[in-house]
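S1.2 Input.
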Amino acid sequence: MSAEFRTRVEHVDTDATGIVHFSRYTSLMETAGTEHLEAHGAGLTAFSAAGVDLVAADLRVTYLHSAVYRDVIVADTRVGHVGAAWFTLAVNLLREERDGDRTPLVTGALVFAAVDPDTRRAVPLPAPLRQALRGIVPDAAHKRIGTPARSGPRGPAAGDLGDRRPGARTPSPAVHRPGAGP
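S1.3 Output.
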């Protein structure tokens, strides 16, 4: 199950119009993700104790709705895929409404890679932590994280990296040029 992450939008999170600045969502995603990992014994503390650092190798964000000062934001965070030296976290940030409903704000995914603290080169995930991460994966088993399933010119649903590896390139969608026909 996803560890509950909850925060209230502060003034410092907003731009001049009072809306949460787009860059703030990525920080909230990372915080929700690392809190989720800590709650399951596979956080930054455990990686550091094992002599390994985690670095963000990829970040995907789809913005859906805005939040404003004093809104309550909650996160749904899940471990997606665990590879030999990296893993993905799917994160949804939602605004908690007064009636208890939740409005999706952003959906996305972070890919974390294990690196040697001295050389900064990729290393395998320590076996006990890889197992701990794999133990969290059933949270997301057969459940798509992100917006409802869709396909189109942007590819798979937001928040779903599938079996992509860090650094893999996605082919650009065909671009329609005005005057070039249908």
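S1.4 Remarks. The first strand starts at residue 5 and ends at 8.
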